Amino acid sequence: MLRTALCTASALAFLTAGLAADPAPPVKEVGHTTSVRVKSVLGAKVSLQGGSSAGTVEDIVISEEGVVDYLIVSDSGGKLVTVPWEAAKFNYEKRLATINITDEQYKQIPTFTIEKYPEFYTPAYRTQVYKYYGLTPGQERRLERRERKP
User: Fold this and answer.
1) Is 116 helix (H, G, I), strand (E, B) or coil?
2) Neighbours of 22 (CB within 10 A)
3) What is the DSSP secondary structure assignment for residue 123, as one 8-state letter?
4) Long-range contacts: 64-70, Cβ < 8 Å, 24+?
5) Residue 65 DSSP label
6) What is the C-alpha to C-alpha distance for residues 2 and 141, in angstroms, rounded to an integer?
7) For residue 129, with 0-12 CB atoms within 10 Å meaning exposed, 13-18 middle and 19 or more buried, which class applies?
8) CA dihedral 75, 41, 10, 111 (to 10 degrees)
9) Cβ neighbour number for residue 53 with a 10 Å cutoff
10) How are strands ordered across the β-sheet holding 68-74?
11) What pLDDT is attached to residue 32?
């Protein structure tokens, strides 16, 4: 319980710091790593193959361990779509995320509303969402690699 509270507090502090800070460049080089501010992700435009618009980044889902797992994309009608973090390629300077699927594929993904979010971490939901993007969830990828080893 304490671990969950600490992880949640850390994630909230990360988000709050990114949202409340003064305007600054969205990406900053720190040694050999690049840091990304939450401000540069929230509200970013999201496009699909061919440049069609999917909407904007409405929210970010962070695991208990503090790992960003999903983006929540909102379209102009208020419908929300879950996008695995790995499925989006960001241009932080332009505040643009691109998802490498077609408009038709994107329309097949189930939507939800702000009143009822899905259960992001149930195995069935996680597997289903990742398949829409042609991906496999991290834990399943690790299991598949172990099974393939001689």
Assistant:
1) strand
2) 4
3) H
4) 64/3, 64/4, 64/7, 64/8, 65/7, 66/7, 66/10, 66/11, 66/14, 69/120, 70/120, 70/129
5) T
6) 29
7) buried
8) 20
9) 12
10) 80-84, 68-74, 53-62, 45-47, 96-99, 88-91
11) 55
pTM over 0.90: no
Q: Exposed/middle/buried for 97, CB within 10 Å: 0-12, 13-18, 19+?
A: buried
- Which tokens hold the place of 104? 């038709």
What is each CA distance from 65 to 8, 33, 42, 49, in whole angstroms? Answer: 8, 20, 20, 32
- Please tell me the distance from the alpha carbon of residue 38 to that of residue 31, in angstroms, as a whole number: 20
Query: 54-85: per-residue pLDDT in tens?
Result: 999 999 999 998 889 999 999 988 899 999 99
Token readout for 51 is 């440049």
Quote the CA–CA distance of 77 and 18 in Å, as a whole number: 27
Q: What is the pLDDT of residue 40?
A: 83
